[in-house]
Amino acid sequence: MIAQQNPLVRTRPARAPDRGRRIPGFPAHPGRTAPDPSMSSSASSSTPISYKDAGVDIDAGDALVERIKPLAKKTMREGVMAGIGGFGALFEVPKRYKEPVLVSGTDGVGTKLKLAFEWNMHDTVGIDLVAMSVNDVLVQGAEPLFFLDYFACGKLHVDTAAAVVGGIAKGCELSGCALIGGETAEMPGMYPDGEYDLAGFAVGAVEKSKILTGQNVKPGDVVLGLASHGVHSNGFSLVRKCIDRAEANGSIPETLDGKPFKAAIMEPTRLYVKNVLAALEKHPIKALAHITGGGLLENIPRVLPEGTAAHLKAGSWPQTELFAWLQKTAGIDDIEMNRTFNNGIGMVIVVAAEDAAATAATLADLGEKVYTIGAIAEIGSGKAVEVR
Q1: Rounded distance, CA 338 to CA 312, Å?
Q2: What was the pLDDT predicted at 83?
């Protein structure tokens, strides 16, 4: 495995023990006595087998390290204690925080990666990886401080890995957080050649007095929605089924929303961090909800106090060509759309009615597409989120 724990780069490959190793003369599993052909007497006494012969290419790992160095360096920020090696990256919480509370988040990219493999589009899934965690951390009002990644594969292809980590570095740069460490694990036999998996971990900080909990949300508050960049990173098991269905009947569109079909499907998750943090500095935002798996129907209730509900107005934000195509191809109703996909809204903001216009104007000036999509009401006998 190739461990990245220096604040700037992945370090040289660690000579980790082979987790698939067997001891000659003993069965691989208790109770199984079938002989392993690779452990024959002729094989055990013939030509030496190197780590590279076993499928782990340390030289490729070193080449990846060199490719990553300048990318990670661009993400450095205050707090990174650069130049200190060892087995862990060090970060000092900025002294401008009086009572800092750390907020952590972790996520992956999911089956969107299957399309990245099939279409050879690896340069944006790293942005997805960062966005899924830093947008979650943001929901508590936290500023993302640093990020770590885990890249696992069966065979390390340097160009592919560098493209993925390049996207991770870009996502960190756009979010203002440092790519402070990570791990590249080359594990022969664990993944098919050409495939990999990703996991990301973000840590942020917020003043204790400014943590967003949603506890002050009340009936009459306004619900604002920030437009998404397409599907983001959730619902791709259904997306892939839609693609299969459309390919089978020859109905794949050339473009969606003015973008080539594949680019529209693979558009990376929008990073809301900098613009929402700027709005938090100026306006008394009560709650935020990152619209991920479960869509609008499952994520908004997570930030609402007991006894309240969000009543969203159908048609108050536009349905893009992408989501219209998905709904038509899958043949599903609005309820299924709103609990599977973000359906065009990637972040929800709850503010008092008197603060709604000013908050929306600030976010629009910063480049967000902002829609007034509903209001908070008493839940009564209804559901926590209703679109009507």
Answers
A1: 11
A2: 53
Of 184, 197, 224, nearest to 310 (Cα)?
A: 224
How many C-beta neighbours within 10 Å does residue 368 have? Answer: 22
* CA atoms of 375 and 222, how far apart (whole Å): 4
Q: Any residues with CB less than 8 A from the CB of 34 and at least 6 apart, and which?
A: 27
Query: In the chain, what are the helix, strand and coil shares in percent, each to the nearest 5?
Result: 35, 20, 45
How far is it, in rounded angstroms, from Cα 218 to Cα 179?
A: 38
Q: Give which of 312, 341, 339, 137 is closest to 236, Cα–Cα.
A: 341
Q: 60-63 long-range contacts, Cβ below 8 Å, gap at least 24?
A: 60/156, 60/157, 60/158, 60/186, 61/2, 61/10, 61/12, 61/13, 61/156, 61/184, 61/186, 62/12, 62/13, 63/158
Q: Are 224 and 360 in contact (CB under 8 A)?
A: yes
Where does the chain have alpha helices with state H? 41-44, 58-73, 112-119, 125-138, 158-175, 236-248, 261-266, 273-282, 295-299, 321-330, 334-340, 353-365
The mean-pLDDT minimum among 32-41, 74-83, 219-228, 372-381 falls in 32-41
The secondary structure element, H or E, covering residue 204 is strand 196-207
> What is d(CA 116, CA 263) in angstroms, rounded to the nearest whole number?
11
Q: What is the tens place of the pLDDT at every residue in 111-134?
A: 999 999 999 999 999 999 999 999
pLDDT single digits (tens) 308-344: 999 999 999 999 999 999 999 999 999 999 999 999 9
In the predicted model, what is the mean pLDDT of residues 287-307? 97
Cβ contact 258:117 at 8 Å: no
